[in-house]
Each structure stands twice: as structure tokens, then as C-alpha cells.
Write a structure and sequence with these properties.
The complex is a heterodimer of chains A (about 280) and B (about 550).
Chain A (H helix, E strand, L loop, with lengths): L4 E12 L9 E6 L2 E8 L5 H13 L8 H28 L9 E2 L1 E9 L2 E9 L3 E6 L2 E4 L6 H7 L5 H4 L12 E2 L12 E6 L5 E5 L1 H4 L4 H10 L3 H14 L6 E13 L5 H12 L4
Antiparallel strand pairs in A: 1-12, 2-3, 3-4, 3-5, 4-9, 5-6, 6-10, 7-8, 7-11, 11-12
Helix pairs in contact in A: 1-2, 6-7
Chain B lengths: L15 E12 L3 E5 L4 H12 L4 H8 L10 E5 L5 E6 L4 E6 L2 E6 L7 E5 L4 E5 L13 E3 L2 E10 L33 H6 L9 H12 L14 H4 L25 H5 L6 H10 L44 H8 L72 H8 L15 E5 L4 E4 L3 E4 L4 E4 L6 E4 L12 E5 L8 E5 L7 E3 L5 E3 L6 E2 L5 E5 L2 E6 L2
Parallel strand pairs in B: 13-15
Antiparallel strand pairs in B: 1-2, 1-9, 1-10, 2-3, 3-4, 4-7, 5-6, 5-8, 8-10, 11-12, 11-22, 13-16, 16-17, 17-20, 18-19, 18-21, 21-22
Helix pairs in contact in B: 1-2
Classes of the chains: A alpha+beta (about 280), B alpha+beta (about 550).
Amino acid sequence: MTDRIHVELHHGAATDVGLVRHANEDAYLAAPPVFVVADGMGGHDRGDVASAIVVEEFAHLDAERYDAEAAAQAVTATLGVIQERILAFGAEQRADGAAAGFSTGTTAVAALLVDGDSGPHWLIANVGDSRAYRFSDGELAQVSVDHSVVQELIDAGTITPAAAQDHPSRNVITRALGGSAMPGGVSGDPDYFLLPLAAAERILLCSDGVSGMVEDAEIGRILARCEDPRDAAEQVIAAAVAAGGHDNATAVVVDVVGLAHTDTYDSAAQRLSLEQKLGALP
Amino acid sequence: MSETTPGPGPSTSGSWSYRTGDWFAVFGSSVTIVLPESQRDQVVALWALVDGGAGFDEVLDGLLSAGLSRVPGFVLASTDGSPTRILLRGAGVQATAVAADGDVVLDGAASHTWVERSLADLTSLQVDLPVAEGAAAGAADLPIVTGLVRVGRINLPPAVAAPLADEPVREPAMDSVMEPVIEPVMTPVSEPVLESSAGGAHLADSPVDAPAAAAESAPLDDEGPATEVMEAISGDPLSDPLSAPLADPPADPLADPRADPLTDSGPDGDPVADLEPVTDAVPAPPGDAPEGWVTPWDTPPAPPIPPIPSTPPGAPMSPSAPSSGPAEDPLAEPDTPAVPSSGLPPMGGETEVVPAGWPPPPPAGGALPDAPPLPIGSWEPIGGGAAPAAPDAGEAAPFGADHDGATAAGALSSPAAEPAVGSGQAVAKLLISDGQTVVVESAVLIGRAPEARRFTSTEQPVLIAVPSRLHEISSTHVEVRPGTGADHGSAVVTDMGSTNGTVLVQPGLGPEDLKPGIAVPLIPGAIINLGDGITIQVTRP
């Protein structure tokens, strides 16, 4: 681990309750090298508690950098703890007199910087329809695959991705954390994605309040326009609210700033680049 | 359908009869599969699967592992319980069945993919296969329990013309060189046999007459040993007249002293003629069989092989399972926040080939051409339904496992002979020309800057980056992983939709361009060329 490549991450995050909902049940964590967005569900069933549990548990992960395999296992274990806590919370609420149908749940999408065999990678994990995008070479591409009814319809070739935007059940997800009393119970199993850092200079994690309101092309334009990740996150949320703000909207933007071996980084290189910036060199 | 009594009746005890022909048939205890002559190589692999006790879906996976388009025709039938599932494909492939809902005629040419039916309480099934021009189809019905044979027609239960009071002693008079070539065309012999499950006591006369006529008018035609099995077996027709079990050494009814007519046959005796007595012997069964050999003629009163469900009953077999029940309610009320992931929404444009309730098989290796395309790079079945891991792959009976009740139970009851992908068993080693060496134990993704999409924490792929100065190699170029189904034990390579393609050179074969998304099994010694000077040599682990 001595030759670990130093990676500097800059990030920005923003969230908004939107124009329709009364409470913001989204939650996010931006604690390099761990980034998470969770979209709580349930309205009166306290989806905010479920998404807060996600953030709390992922916060325990941020201390160290894992290799890819250990990271996926750690994330799986964390999601297991989250699942148990949410189910316990639901049981507690029902015991305290909440309706028998009380059920809270949440999505989660997480990005962790991990060490792979061939350099640092992004490990992305998702449960539900909160998304991870990557922005590379000026192009936005969705990384995660939603666990939603419309995604399954798209996979099955029944509907086109364009039709999915207006599909009546576009908000029905097929996997979630918690959600004990949902019909049939749902799986909380995550899907994982592993990307080399070079192929993902900028990562966007967002809830469906963003991806459901703003077209991917527009998100791409915003990410291209805003160099600072904090601006980028705020602009993305502003666009989601401007588009109607039907749902809570949350975005976390992470930039990979430095991609260099720590032992090759020296002050000479830094000075050189400064002189270039000042125009001292031709 | 659900009201009818389930459970294997006499018809599902797994005992068949066949007529000789060009096609290959693999008869297993729970699955029977028929393939045309062109699929010779595939038959051998499928035999291993079927004999290992693989279930219907598993055999189907193996059958389609190279892609549906490579298989011009096939018949696949489950025989280990009710309902019986049957799949047909190909021109001239026809099945006639009698089941709870009456007579059913299926034509393999009726669909571009395949025709599938689930038949509850199947009482008889006959599958006719096209005969190549110039070839003479056999006209005698030969009994078989398990094994690999050439067939032109198969019947379940055996289309054995069991003559009773009629003329029980006729057959010793048979000429040893006669070959019943004339087509007796008895209308489904199987039906009478079935309706009297306790033995064909009240058989109509007509089916009995047909073989008799065949015997008496037999032209002297030594050509075309009707029981051409595999080379190894066809060599000595006498030693193995049933020609069935490839790997059952004691399979030699001749050893049974009571099978007198057989020994009377001269050395030139055509196996078909030799077998004729077996059919007639039904009223007086020979009784004890040689050790380890299950006699098909024991069948009607007491099925020789107790039907051992090698596929867990229920789940994928049940046609009554709602295809999309759980998903439909949420569709109606968009406010419902979640539905079970198990409830896949109905596939678009359901056709007759995929009846409701039949979950699509997990894409093995190459995706089914007719299945919705998987996203490139998705090597996990969408929907997360991982193939069930075999409880003990070692239990799966290899060649030579016998079929007597005791050992078969252990072997056949293991539902899947295949460990899941990423089982950790090394199947190959990759020597990459940039100096890297990779052992293939799970999926290995190779490319300029490879990415892994949609995997689970237990099936972590290995990412191998290779240099590509000219950028000829795509970021995720190829995948090499342990094969499943028929490719179990070897590595398979899949081009992940690379920009410039992948060339595969297998030992003894010319260069082959990989088709994106189609898995190709690798032979040790194969060379995979990614371009930009990067080649991958495949060796044994």
C-alpha cells in the first residue's frame, strides 16, 4: 500500500425539498472517499429516518480506503446493517401505535474510491432508482441501472427509454432498503459497478427528483458548464426545481482532481505549472 | 389443470421406445433431448448434462449456449413429473400427444424460435423426426430407458406392441437377417398401452398385427443397421442390442438366459431383429435383469426407475405461476412505492413460444438471440436471479455412473450439476503478451481500462488493464469466464462490443471473429487477439 496512488477529490452537494413535497426525505453523505445519496420513501411513514440511517451507517466506512473486493464486501455488510435498522425502526413504530401498514424504506446509491489491481477505481453500488452518472470527455453517461419497473420494461424491450420518462409507474422500484410491508417484500441486494478513475473524471450521484425532472442532456450541459463541483451540484438542483420540483432533489458531484503517484509529485512541477498559468513561459 | 392429479403416472416413468433414424436422442431420467445429425458434437456434451441429472432448464441452457441459430432443430421434453414440458423446433419435427386436455399436435416449424407446450397428465407422446432423403427409417420400436441413440421417432411410453393371447410364440420363428423396413404405420400404438397401465391386456389386435406383418414380409436388407448408436457401440451389435446406455457396461440383455430368442439370432443378426423379441416379451417379462441394468420391459406394472425429480418441483416448472402478478398491482397504482423484484413484468409481445409463467431461462454464455439484448457488459442475469448453485457438484453422476435406484437417487437429486459462475474453480490460465498472467476463476474483464457492470459482491470480476498505444483496444474489450451448462469446466470468451473486434484462433481451426455478446468456449492453446499487439494465450490452469 506504500505505492498507493494519491487521488484528490473535490466535491459539492445540494438538496432541495422541491415545490410539491412538505418534507425532504432525501439524504446525502459526502465524506471522501465515500459518497452516498439516499431517497427515503413513505411520506407519513418517515422516509427521512430511513435515508438518515443510510447516511449514518455509510459514515462509518469513510475512515480507510479499501481494495475493490473488500470494499464491495464492506458495502454489502453496511447495507445489511441498514436493512436491519430500518426494519427494526418500522417494527418499533408499529409497536408504538403506528398503522399496521407502516413501512418505511429508502434507495441508496454510493460511490467509493477503491484500489484496484490496475490503479484506483470507483466502486458504485445502488439499490433502487437513485442514480450514478459519470461525466467524462464532455459526455454524461448513466452508470447504475435502476431497480425499477420501467427499467425492467426497457430491458425486456417492451418500452423505449424515451417512453419510460412518462410511464405511469416510473416511480415504482423493484429493490429498496427496508420496505418490509411493501407488497411481497423487496430485495435490498445491491448491484455493483467498478470503473477506472480515468474513465470517470466527474461522478454525479442523484435522487430521482433530479433524473426524473431534468433530461440527461441538460444535466450534461450543466456539468460541462460548471467547473466547480459545488456550483455543478447547485445548478443541477436548481434545474430540477425549475422543471417543476415534483420531488425532493439531491445531487452530489465529485471530481477527480489529482491523478498522480505521490512520489512523483514535487514542488518543481507545481511551480512550473504556476509559471505557465502566469504566462511567464511561451 | 391444477385439479388433475399430479404426479408421475405410468406415462412419466421415463421409459421410451424409439425407431432408428438420423437424429440423435439422449434419453435421461428426467429430460429427453433430440437433435439432428449436424449437432453431433453438441449431443455428446448434452449427454453428459442429461446423464448427470441436469434439469430441464439446465439442459435448455446447454442446448442454447452457442445460440439458438446454431441449432436448426431440436426436441426437448421433461419426463419427471406432471406437467410434461415439451419444446420443438425445426421443420418436419412433429409431436403428437394425448394429455389431460385432449390430443395435441405440435409442429416444430410453427414458430421461428420454438414451440413449447406444458401438458398435464400426459398419457402418450410420439415425436416424429424428418428423415433425410435416401435414408431408410427404422420401423421397429425399440425400448430404451436412458442412453444415446439415433432415432427417427420416439414414443413415450414405449410403443411396444405387447401381444397377449394373440400369438405369443411367434417371434422365435423370425429370420435372423430380416429387417423390418416396411412401415407398419400403426396408429399410435402407445395409446392402448397407456390406457391399460397395468399391462396391455386388452390391446387391440391391429397394433399387434403390424409388427407381425413387418416380420413376415421382411425384405433381406442388411444395409443400415438400424441401431447405429455411436461408433463405439455400433461395432458389435450383438453385444449391445439395446444400444442404449453409452456408459453402462453391464447393459447386455444377452446375458439374461431367459432372453432366448436373442441368442438364437445368428451372428449376422440385425440388432433390430434381435430386439424384436423384447417387445414381444412383455407378457412374460424376463424378470431379473443383470446387475445395474434397468430393464425397460419391467415397466408397466412397476416402473424400473422410480421417478426421481431431478428438478425441484414447483418454481420454474409450474405453469400456473403468475407471470407478473406482483408487478401488476403497482402498475395500476403508481403510488405504491415498491414491488418485489421477483415479479418481472410481462415480456412484450408474448408468443406461443413462451407461455405465461415460464420464466425465461437465465442467459447462459451467449444471450439467446430472441431474448431482449443484455446491456453489453452485463454478465449477470438481469433481475438478479442467479442460477442455483449445485449443492455438491461432485455428486453429479459422471460417465459410467450406474442407474440403479440407490446411487441414482443421490446423483439425480442434486438439482443442478453446474456451480454458479464464479465458483472459484480455475478453468484456464491466460498468458497476456504484455507479461500478465491471470487464472480464470471468475469473470475476467480485459481491456484498455476495463469496467465491470452490474455484479454482486460475491461474484467480483477481475479487471485486467492492457496497454494500447494506438487505442485499438476498447476500454472493456473481452470477457473470459468459467463456462456454464455444456461449457462447464472450460473457459468461454465473449467480445464485449469492442470497437475493433476480437480474433480467436483455436488449435486446429482458422481465425474466427468473435461476435459481440456471444460466448465461445476456449480450448487450451487458443489465442485471443485484441489488436495493438496484445494477444492472450489460453492454457490449462
